[in-house]
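Deliverable D4.2, example record:
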Amino acid sequence: MDNGATALVIPNKEVGMIFTDTVRLWFEETAAALDLSHFAESLWNGDAEFIRKNLNDVLYDTISYYDNTESFYHGFVAGLLRGAGFAVKSNRENGLGRADLAVEDGKNKRALIIELKRAAKYDELDRMAAEALEQIEKRKYAAELQPQIRTVLKYGISFWKKECCVKMARLQLNAI
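Output generated by the structure prediction step:
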C-alpha cells in the first residue's frame, strides 16, 4: 500500500475465531477498567443517543481506523456488555435466525436484543441501523426468550470506522 500500511487477511475460519476471541478478551479487559454502569443503565432505559455517544467515545479512544469488520464490532460490543456485568448470549439461535447479542434479565422481566451491521460508507449508518432493527423483527429474535420476559429493548447498531448509529425499539410482551 502507498501509505506504508500492510493489508492483512484472516486465512480461515479457525484463525478468524481465534482473532475474534482475542479481540473480545482484550475489550473485556479494557472494559473492566472503564466505569460502564451508566452505559448499562442507558441500555435498560432505551437511551439510544447516550449509547451512541459512549460507543463513539470508546471507539475513538481504543480502536484503529482499520478495525472495521462486522465481527470486530461484534467482539467490541460483546466485550463492553461483559465489562458492564451482563451475561451475554452471542449468535445463539432464536426465532428464525441468530441474534448477534442477547441479554436476558429474568429477575426484572426484561431482555436486550442487539443486531449489528457494518456500513460501507458514513452516509449508510442510519439506514443500516434501521435494517438491523427490521431484522430483529423479521426473524422473530424475541420469540424464544424466557417466558417471564415482559419488556424487550431491541437495538440496531451500525458502524462505520470509528462512528456508529444506534436505533432502539421497545417491545412489550403480554403477561401469561
